[in-house]
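Figure 6 in text form: structure in, sequence out.
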């Protein structure tokens, strides 16, 4: 299983490189631009994939070598990481080929795997200690970005298949924003305020604010405001979970 994690971590940047060269059809930015939504982020935001891929490969090699091979927590996380990486790699050609419905299933499955791995690592007794940082950081970033990207994928699927009105997208887009916020807040709570997870999500939300504040679609300005509120609430929750909540819990157990 440890070797499979390594292979799947390498598969992601390799498939991304092929995808950007049109090996599977139009590039992802071309496909995305063809179906504009109120959830789409500014183009620069997607550069985070370079960091995520690099850290995922580093984690994969690290967990497969040395004494880490006998670490029970890393053994528990390995199948989740391998599945999350494989699903992320599969999503890219599917998106280029315009198989949006299948893309939604794949990206949410990838999110489920990476988020579960991040939860396990975050709830470890020392989630950011040296022996965990190499796993906790990349998987948390990966899960954080997918938590937002999954709902962007849903929005583009709705537009591509015209499942809901495309000339007035604010109503159903607001619902997707709320659902994304629920996922982000619930997962962050389960991870007890995961800074890396939140950083990836806030990076994406900030890029949504940038894109939509300059957008021409009806409701773009409102969408930018919603994304900003979610980012602020998510940061506030993280600060409370990491600083205020431990003191509250400690006080409650003080005789």
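Output sequence:
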């Amino acid at each position: 299983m440890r070797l499979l994690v390594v292979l799947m971590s390498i598969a992601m940047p390799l498939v991304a490189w092929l995808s950007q060269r049109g090996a599977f059809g139009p590039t992802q930015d071309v496909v995305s631009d063809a179906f504009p939504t109120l959830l789409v982020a500014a183009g620069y935001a997607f550069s985070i994939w370079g960091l995520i891929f690099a850290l995922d490969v580093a984690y994969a090699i690290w967990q497969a070598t040395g004494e880490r091979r006998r670490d029970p927590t890393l053994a528990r996380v390995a199948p989740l990481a391998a599945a999350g990486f494989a699903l992320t790699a599969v999503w890219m050609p599917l998106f280029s080929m315009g198989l949006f419905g299948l893309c939604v299933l794949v990206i949410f499955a990838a999110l489920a795997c990476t988020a579960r791995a991040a939860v396990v690592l975050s709830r470890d007794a020392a989630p950011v200690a040296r022996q965990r940082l190499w796993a906790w950081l990349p998987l948390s970033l990966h899960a954080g970005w997918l938590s937002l990207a999954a709902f962007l994928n849903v929005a583009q699927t709705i537009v591509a298949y015209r499942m809901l009105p495309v000339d007035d997208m604010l109503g159903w887009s607001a619902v997707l924003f709320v659902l994304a916020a629920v996922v982000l807040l619930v997962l962050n709570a389960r991870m007890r305020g995961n800074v890396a997870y939140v950083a990836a999500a806030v990076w994406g939300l900030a890029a949504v604010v940038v894109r939509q504040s300059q957008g021409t679609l009806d409701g773009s300005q409102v969408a930018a405001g919603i994304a900003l509120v979610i980012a602020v609430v998510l940061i506030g929750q993280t600060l409370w979970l990491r600083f205020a909540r431990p003191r509250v819990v400690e006080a409650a157990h003080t005789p």
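Caption detail: The CA atoms of residues 85 and 206 lie 25 Å apart.
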